[in-house]
Amino acid sequence: MSKSKRQRLGQHFLKSQNIAKFIVESAGITKKDTVLEVGTGPGILVPLLCERAKSVVSVEADLGLYSEAETKFSRLTNLTLLHGDGFDSSVEFSVFVSNLPYSESRNALEWLAQKKFSRAVIMVQKEFADKLLSMEDKAMRAISVIANHAFEIERLMSVGRNNFAPPPRVDSAILRLEQKNVFSAELVRSVNCLFSYRRKTVGNIAKKFGKEIRSDKRLEELSGGEIIELAKKFI
Hints:
The protein has helices at about 5-10, 15-25, 45-50, 65-70, 105-115, 125-135, 140-150, 185-195, 200-210, 225-235, and strands spanning about 15, 35-40, 55-60, 80-85, 95-100, 120-125, 150-160, 165, 170-180. The protein has about 240 residues and is α/β, with parallel strands linked by helices. The strands form 2 sheets. It has a 7-stranded mixed β-sheet with strand order 4-3-2-5-6-9-7, with helices on both faces. The N and C termini lie far apart (about 40 Å).
């Protein structure tokens, strides 16, 4: 895959060993854990994960990078490398670790919200992390509601763009997620659908679903928990 195509897809590979070690240490991995990594890339996290975990499954969509990893890490007996879309994976895991491509951050969090696991450490675009953690009025987004209901989210540190190759135009942030609630696919869709009508009142939104709710409030006037309860009524 060419450099320009990787940049369009949001693939900027971490090159700092210190930050890689910080990510793995922050995940609290033990010899009882199965770790899933989506996006093997050049494999900066792979040996660090294998040192700590019972087993590691790392999935890479790019065939060239997958083939390179097969050769590079052939001696790691607790590693399984897979080629394909990690978010189509049915692998069971207790810990998720990923330097997510910026273009996949939202899809990844919606996918994680539907999985049963213990914790995750992910790298995302700093601006995305800011939006994810904002639950106030007009700044609230569907993914913010989903993520904050599904996880306890902690921002661990910001990461400057010069720690990547090729360097992106923006900075990144490392987040730690502890699972609280598991979503169904239907609930994820319902929350997203609600936000497509965010300028309408709750009463008018209900009519779109063939329901009757007497309320002149708009979504931005509701708490995240209230939005989740509302979304459940429209499944």
